[in-house]
Amino acid sequence: MRTPHAPAPPAPPGPRTPARSALTPAVLLGAASVLLLTLVALEWRPLLDLDGGISRTTHRWAVAEDGLTQAARVLTDWVWDPWTMRLLCAVAVILLLRRPAARWTAGWLVVVVALATAAQQGLKAALGRERPVWSDPVDSAHYAAFPSGHAMTATVVLGLLLWLLHRHGVGLVVWRTALAVAVVSVAGVGLTRIWLGVHWPTDVLGGWLFGALTVVAAVAAHRRLRPTPRGTARGRSGGTRTPSPSPSPSPSPEPSTSDDPPRRPR
What are the residue boundaries of the Phosphatidic acid phosphatase type 2/haloperoxidase domain, all occurrences included (predicted)? Predict the structure, then answer.
């Protein structure tokens, strides 16, 4: 009597390619960015009312809290200014150029930041959204409002630098410190722009969304055009390491041709 064969177990899923792993966040960020852009362009009244209510409240606080307002001006004009971010990017490019194997990545970093700046200025020119106007302003800014250039530039530059640190396998302490600084900077620069009354909240949100979308797309392009060589594996800290060679098998003992009984080991 034949025994029925058990069904074969399902094959394990194959490894996720870089394109597949970046597809979901890219689609989500792209959809959110397009939706916000459309609502701003159409001047959707509920969105405008929300912007106005938040901005009026934070402006009253900014006028009343002169110390916090001065600190916000220093942070937004010097520490988190777009030119400060570009200077930080330039330092990273110089460090990458010192290594011949990283020169392609240095050029990629320059091109991505330049394209992000051009896209940001193009969106501002296309929408021409006016900034908040106050009778008692605490700061001033020029040109169109959407998206926030401060928020988008900080998101792009710090996001790309974080990925490069992770890719080059920095230590855990350095990684956590860099991550904390980046999160505080990206969030802080957006909040200071709203506090100072030079941007609507949705301007800042748009800068964050378009900046994050740029980072995801740029990283996916880098992985596709400059993939990690085969035969390397990711370490815990995100760097690449080559697998250790497997030990060579010890030679098997020669078969005994003697009629004597085998000796016992001492």
Answer: 106-219
CA-CA distance, 192 to 198, in Å (whole number)? 9
The average confidence (pLDDT) of the chain is 85
Give the helix/strand (H/E) hosting 241: strand 240-241
Give, in degrees to the nearest 5, the angle at Cα 210 between 209 and 212: 65
CA–CA separation, 42 and 210 (whole Å): 18
Domain ranges (residues) in the chain: 23-133+141-227
| pLDDT tens-digit series, residues 47-59 | 999 999 999 999 9
Residues 6+ apart with CB under 8 A from 111: none
- Confirm if 115 and 153 have CB atoms less than 8 A apart: no
Phi/psi at 199 (nearest 5 deg)?
Answer: -145, 145
Bridge partners for 240 per DSSP: 234
**pLDDT tens track for 127-178:** 999 999 999 999 999 899 999 999 999 999 999 999 999 999 899 999 999 9
Which bin fits 150, alpha (ψ -120 to 50), beta or left (φ > 0)?
alpha
pTM above 0.90, yes or no: no
